[in-house]
Structure prediction request, 286 residues.
Amino acid sequence: MKKSLFDKKKTLDNKLSQAKADAKPWLFRFARFGHMAQGSVYFLIGLLAIQMAFGLGGKLTTSQGALYTIAKQPFGFLVVIILAVGLSGYACWQITRTIFDPENKGYNIKGIVSRISYLVVAVIYIGLCVSTVKILLHTRVHTTSGHYQTLSARMLAQPFGQTIIAITGTVILIVGLGQIFWALSGRFQKQLKKNEMSQKERKWSKYLGKFGISARGVIFGIIGVFLIKTAIQADPDETKGLDGALAEVATQPFGPVMLTIVSLGLIAYGVYMFAEARYKRLTSPN
Prediction:
């Protein structure tokens, strides 16, 4: 009897392993496509922001706003459909990283925190996919920080709402600082298959990654600080989205110069994501 149960379990494990192996090729292609979609959105956000910095008619916007801008262009409807598929692929990949741990993060504290962060990213991109579907259905979407301010107001009205917002802001601030450190240390290069890259590709991916990931970290940090201010002052108007964070950069001394630098950084991040789409390791190198 015990042997029979053992054999059944072994057979089931083999079938699951085979199913995972069969799923990998299309899942990996889906994930790489998702990286390209993410890079496209950040590239456009940075491009619109730098146009504004130079007074060329651009604007500060969120990811939803970038997709809405694309939808208004010739053939934009088709492009948004393609990006929706890609963004759903990126969300799917984050869920896969959370559940199946293809990168072997493990179950220690560091591994668990990493996998929780993947799940949070998945939720964010699922929300972005929902916004994309709304755009395709010609439904109104929130393209400014007002949406986040509404969510903050609802959260502040709940028990322990201020505490939850403060914790969220602290986590986002830490993530932002972590991204800056990760970028400047050059550790992000370990996730690239550099043996498949030319010398020029390795060089430019290094520069673009350092600049782009740092800029993204700065934006995350600003968003985190404003969430903490929201909790301390119990004022939802303090909540800022990506566009609000960029606007805050513009209000600082030498604001246009700083906005230009951060905008170029977001463009660099978008281009770097194209490199990740091609060369990122999607499983543990071990």
